[in-house]
Each structure stands twice: as structure tokens, then as C-alpha cells.
Design a protein that fits this description.
The chain has about 325 residues and is an alpha/beta fold. It folds into two domains: about 150 residues, Rossmann fold, CATH 3.40.50; about 150 residues, 3-Layer(aba) Sandwich (Rossmann fold). It contains twelve helices and nine strands. Strands 7-6-5-8-9 form a five-stranded parallel β-sheet. A four-stranded parallel β-sheet has the order 2-1-3-4, sandwiched between helices. Strand 3, helix 5 and strand 4 form a beta-alpha-beta unit. Helix 2 crosses helix 6 and helix 6 crosses helix 7. The N terminus and C terminus are likely disordered. The structure holds phosphoric acid mono(formamide)ester.
Length: about 325
Amino acid sequence: MTLPPAADRAATGVPAQPVQRLRSRHLLGVADLTPAEVLLILDTAEAMREVGTRTIKKVPALRGKTVVNLFFEPSTRTRTSFEIAEKRLSADTLSVAASSSSVAKGETLVDTARNIEAMAPDMIVLRHQSSGACQMLAGVCSSRIINAGDGMHEHPTQALLDVLTIREHKPALASLKVAIVGDLLHSRVLRSNVALLGMLGADVWVCGPTTMIPPGVSRFGVTATSSVDAAVEGADVVMLLRIQLERMRGHFFPSRREYFRLFGMSAERLARAKPDVIIMHPGPLNRGVEIASDVADGPYSVILEQVSNGVAVRMAVLYLLAGLEEGGA
Ligand code: CP
């Protein structure tokens, strides 16, 4: 497998010197990455995408490596795409769901991880309901840890696949207006995207009910508003975020119907965006709450492209982290 020429770096607004490897042993958050490392992952993901078009969708890059997917929260896209990515790279892989493991009997995260480590995996992909769980595991495990979503903290591979998708449609990331609309307060996707899009120079607007705008979010260089019209006006990218009822303690808006009326993305509301706007959503969708079905399934939607790119990005991350046997931090 050969990597394509480096992407048009000037167009991204990132004055990054190309790098060939990641410095960290783990991927815990976007904050672990430099702009040059982000470009390395995106360029590697573009090369990995080609593997998925082959008759035999497999390369030997991770042969002999063992990857454990440890999921303490439900997942469709992230877990499936990590598994497919691992198999396409020829890793030995297995998935452990909390509900069918001894976690259900009260075993802690650290004890679970230590017992899995006793079987000598090379990498652990962790999804956990607690913010900081991946950081904690990285402190007690010798395996490389990949964050597949920790509480309300980060979901770095989601943001990377989002940026890969945006870059395919709009290579000049630095000149883009990106409107992120929805449940900002509970969203790890928001936090990772704000960090990553900010790093790449995009003009990021975040929008939701005032009750769901994280205090101090403007410190991260974004424009925060409760006016969807203002956020969507002239946007190149509109990213909807799921209303995360499972994380809510209390009432943040009167009803789902009211939420859709005020913040839901309808075709009418979307008309304020640029004519070539793309619509994104990390999934799963609450149709008729944060997004209308005709928008989710319409011509501007790249939601399923995001899912496809998830495999390529996760292959890239696994591949690059596995290449650190000598000298990784
Ligand atoms: N986007 C995302 O994380 O989806 P899943 O919860 O289905 O993995």
C-alpha cells in the first residue's frame, strides 16, 4: 500500500511540516495531535479507503497484533467500524460488551482492563460513559489505548472522520463556516470537533438552546448562539448533534416537538446556508427532533459518507499507532 501525495496543505490553512508518525502511544483526544499529525491521519485514511474497494478487502499491516474493543456503552457505527478496520488490517480482534462481561457482576474498569491485559493485547479500543476513562486506563495499562468516546469528553476518531468527509467536499477548510447545532452540553463529538476544526482554521459556530450551551464555550474560539438562523446563514457545513436524553438530568427544553420547531434542521431553515452546503450528523439520528427526514436523506446529506469514512480513519489510526514499537512516547 502506498500513500498518496500529501494533501494540499496550504488550502487547509495549516502550515504543517509533513510527519511520518504519531508521537503518542495512545489516541485519547484531539488534544494529543498536532496539525501535522492530523494531516498524516487524514492522508493515511485516504490511502486506506482504497483497501475497501478491493475484491479481497485485506492488507497484512496488523498481522500478529491483537486488538480488544471494550465497549461499556452502546454503539453501532464506532464499534462496527473499528472491527471492520481491524479485520481489514489483519489484526486478531475481539469485542467485549459490558453487558455480557463480568462488569455486569460489578468488576471495575481497571480490573477488567488488567485482566484483559494479562492476555497480552496490543491495543484496547475503549468506549466508556465516564469522561477521562481512557486517560485513566492509559495510566495503568501497557497496551495502546484508543478513545472510542468517553462520557461527555472526547470522541477523536469521530471528529477525524468528520474532517475527512468535509475535506473531500471542501478542501479549503480554513475558509469554511461550520455550524454545529444541537445538544452541545452533553456532546463529546462537539468537543472533539471544536478542537479539530479550530486547529484547522475553520470558522466554527455552535448553536443550541441556552440551557444546552456549555458555559465558557466561546473560550475555544467559536461563536455561540441560540439563533439557528444566524448559525446556518451562509454556512458551508451544517452538523447536527443528537439530543442525548440518556445523559440528561432534568429538563432542558419543553418537548421534542418544541425542540424541532425551534432548533430542528428543516429544508426551509437550511435554505439560509450556502447552495452547496453539506449536512452532517454523527448518528444515531433522532428523526423529527434535531433533523427532518427529508434533510437527513436529501441531496446535501453526507451522513452515510461519514460512516464509510469511519472505517478508513480507524484503519489509519490503528495502523499509525501500531507502527510505534520502537521509540513511541
Ligand atoms: N457516532 C457514533 O459514535 O455512533 P455510535 O454510538 O453508534 O458508535
